[in-house]
Amino acid sequence: xxxxxxxxxVEMVQAFYEAPxxxxxxxxxxxxxxxxxxxxxxxxxxxxxxxxxxKEKEDLIEEWQPEPxxxxxxxxxxxxxxxxxxxxxxxxxxxxxxxxxNFASFNFLGLLDSDRVKDKALASxxxxxxxxxxxxxxxxxFDVHLELESRLAKFMRTEEAIxxxxxxxxxxxxxxxxxxxxxxxxxxxxxxxSIQKGLQASxxxxxxxxxxxxxxxxxxxKEQELEDQKNPRKxxxxxxxxxxxxxxxxTADVCPLPELVRLKYKYKVxxxxxxxxxxxxLGEHGKGVTEHFGxxxxxxxxxxxxxxxxxxxxxxxxxxxxxxxxxxxxSGQGYxxxxxxxPMLAAAAIExxxxxxxxxxxxxxxxxxxxxxxxxxxxxxxxxxxxxxxSPALHLQLERSSGxxxxxxxxxxxxxxxxxxxxxxxxxxxxxxxxxxxxPPPSIRVVxxxxxxxxxxxxxxxxxxxxxxxxxx
Amino acid sequence: xNVGTAHSxxxxxxxxxxxxxxxxxxxxxxxxxxxILLSIPFVSVPVVWTLTNMIHNLCMxxxxxxxxxxxxxxxxxxxxxxxxxxxxxDYGVQFTASQRVSYLLTSFYTKYDRVHFVVNTVSLLTVxxxxxPQLHGVRIFGINKY
Lengths: 473, 146
Fold this sequence. Notes:
heterodimer, A: alpha/beta, Aspartate Aminotransferase, domain 1, Aspartate Aminotransferase, domain 2, 2 domains, seven-stranded mixed β-sheet, four-stranded mixed β-sheet, 15 strands, globular, B: mainly alpha, transmembrane helix (chain A), lipid metabolism (chain A), transmembrane (chain A), acyltransferase (chain A)
């Protein structure tokens, strides 16, 4: 043992003296560098911002003019004068004290006032109280939520469904859960505002194609394919999605779904379908645009819809394969970090689903009414009807725009006021003009429900005609 | 795994090397590796030192400079997806110091033999050069870019 130790000491010292010079120099450099690193260097930032001189800073501070906290707004801005509704927005709605026939609320199937739904909601209110006071992960998951999810999955014939407590947040949470920085999304120009917010949150590359123009989409997909061929390694880690709506809320027409599925398989992209307006409306049993076109539900990767239109509840859902939907349970921001849907609204949605399942006749009734209204609104001088005959929310746009959006809106508002005076409730479609990517032209939105009778429709159409002849000459 | 919810650090990878006990466990694991190599009967002491140095540098290179992204989903929509661990860390001064100390020790124990010198120096350089600030985000020949 002692001999071994001696070997180490003596031989080490010898070796040090015999060491080649380059080695010793290199070691000396290393030792100095270590000392410098440990004691003399500041932490560095790889991206140093440009440093300003004192004078430049003073100049910038002097130049700065603060913007007013509240920008100046005219007194007769439409958002400052709103119509007040007292009572439920059912078939007969009380606006500003006047009882009117409702052609403005998205109560397509008339489930808002259904006694069955109301009874179930009341029973649920008595059992659970009003709110859940917690997100799904912290004691906010009730049995009604799980029941609603399984009922929705069964209704849409998918593997799984997930519930969100706010309809706007549904698609706005679903898109950024799958699409991240560096991914590519192809989206229609007429996509609604919630889709736009979801796209913005995803930080992906967004490519817009012209509304319902499959050739434009194919052109974009081909360009992307060429780029992928140039750089296959990058293409392998880039995800590509197409986001479309079943029935567009802004233009009231339907997406060409079979064509989209063909493009999906040809260019290997995923389809996200937003069915807020078409769930409970299109198809023989109300299952949406996939049933309408006879497309296999498994071809669509994610279907998202809000339950605030036909289902007459609150919240939204996404459905698809378990593999896809399960991811949102941890990555859907609106799911993890918002309080869950109040149980009475979930119970109301379950009852609404039951009514939809038991009585598929209402969908054909709705379809008939839609085509009736579409027929009747054609040919009003000064207004053009935008939308497909089976869409329950149609748009009446000005045939000749004055060029200025606010005067167009005022004109349309005067038509709506005229109709309100005659007890027909209509609404001007409203948008956040500064925030929307492609603002749709101003229009009056006419909504068709199953509860409207022939007389109601006739009266409404004649009111609109009258108003158009007075205000639009 | 859902990160960034219990504290405000969006990407924990930037701070993991500063956590408590990281230095101690790092030194202990190198010591353990060295002991295991020493217990192989037919290998001589200088070769063991060189082997320790090489294996340590190789593992360091793979973990810090080859593997990209994070093993968990971050709430920043994949900002660090194309960055190696070294590029994600804010600074890592101590680690480069430790590499150099390791090199010094190895050189000492291999008694400055030339072959060992070459091998050890090359191994050291492969680990030191990617850590220079000038090489932040640089991908030579497009290797490991995506």
